[in-house]
C-alpha cells in the first residue's frame, strides 16, 4: 500500500508527477504538499490525520503505532518552483501532447498516424530539432510547407512553440493505471 501511486499536481492543478504513497505522506508531513480528499478539498497534515476513514476505493489506511493515516490519491504541491524543474523528454509523443494532437497550421486534430512533426526551419536549412523549432502538422500541411520557411509560404503556427512547462500526462498514464480520483486532472491536459 505504501507503494501505491499518488498523483502530484502543481499549484495550477496540473498533473506533474506520480509518486508513491510513502513519499506523498512524507511530503504532506513536511508541509510540501496538501492532500486532496474525495471531494477535492485540500488538507494539511494536521487536518488530514484528523479526517475519518474514507469509504470504497479511497478507503486505504496506513496504520502506524499511534495514527491511522489515510492514503492520499492526489496531492498538490505548495511550492510552485518545485514543478518547472521536471525535465520533459523531447520525444515525438510529447510533442503531440504539447500540441494536443492538433495541426498547428490548419487546426485539424487527428491521431498520431495522421500527423507529422514539422520543423519550422527545415533541417536542410539549418533548423534544429528542439522544442522551439518543431510543431505538429497534418500530412497535407506538412507536405504543402515542404522545405520552405513559414514566412515563405504564409503558414504560421497557431502558437509559438515552446518547451512545455509541465510533465505531459501520457507518460504518467503509461506508467500506471490512473486512480478514478485522478480523472478530473487528467482530463484537463490529456486530450488525444
Ligand atoms: Zn494542417
Could you walk me through the main structural features you see in this protein, from its secondary elements to its overall organization?
The structure is a single chain. This protein is of the alpha+beta class and 192 residues long. The chain contains 7 helices and 9 strands. The protein has 2 domains: 5-85 and 167-189, no CATH class; 92-153, DNA Binding (I), subunit A (Orthogonal Bundle), CATH 1.10.30. The strands form 3 sheets. The protein has a 5-stranded mixed sheet with strand order 2-1-7-3-4. Bound molecules: zinc ion. Zinc ion binds next to strand 9 and helix 4.
The small-molecule ligands in this entry are: zinc ion
Overall outline: elongated
**Beta-strand segment tally:** 9
Helical content band: 10-25%
Oligomer: single chain
Order of helices and strands: EEHEEHEEEHEEHHHH
Q: Beta fraction of the residues?
A: 15-25%
> For the residues shown, what is the average pLDDT?
82
**Count of separate DSSP helical elements:** 7
Unreliable runs: 188-192
First-to-last CA distance: 31 Å
Counted up, domains total 2
Major beta sheet, specifics? 5 strands, mixed
The order of strands across the largest sheet is 2-1-7-3-4
**Radius of gyration, Cα only, in angstroms?**
21 Å
Structural class: alpha+beta
Q: What's this, in brief?
A:
This protein is an alpha+beta fold. It is 24% helix and 19% strand.
Amino acid at each position: 500500500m505504501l507503494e501505491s501511486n499518488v498523483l502530484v499536481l502543481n499549484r495550477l492543478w496540473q498533473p506533474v508527477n506520480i509518486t508513491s504513497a510513502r513519499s506523498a505522506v512524507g511530503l504532506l508531513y513536511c508541509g510540501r504538499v496538501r492532500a486532496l480528499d474525495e471531494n477535492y478539498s485540500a488538507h494539511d497534515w494536521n487536518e488530514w490525520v484528523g479526517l475519518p476513514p474514507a469509504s470504497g476505493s479511497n478507503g486505504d489506511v496506513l496504520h502506524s503505532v499511534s495514527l491511522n493515516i489515510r492514503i492520499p490519491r492526489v496531492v498538490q504541491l505548495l511550492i510552485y518552483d518545485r514543478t518547472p524543474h521536471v525535465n520533459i523528454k523531447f520525444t515525438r509523443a510529447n510533442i503531440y501532447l504539447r500540441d494536443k494532437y492538433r495541426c498547428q497550421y490548419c487546426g485539424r486534430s487527428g491521431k498520431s498516424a495522421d500527423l507529422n512533426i514539422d520543423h519550422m526551419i527545415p533541417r536542410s536549412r539549418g533548423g534544429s530539432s528542439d522544442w522551439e523549432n518543431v510543431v505538429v502538422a497534418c500530412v497535407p500541411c506538412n507536405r504543402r510547407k515542404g522545405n520552405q520557411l513559414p514566412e515563405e509560404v504564409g503558414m504560421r503556427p497557431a502558437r509559438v512553440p515552446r518547451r512545455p512547462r509541465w510533465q505531459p500526462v501520457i507518460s504518467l498514464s503509461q506508467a500506471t493505471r490512473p486512480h478514478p480520483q485522478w480523472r478530473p486532472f487528467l482530463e484537463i491536459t490529456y486530450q488525444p
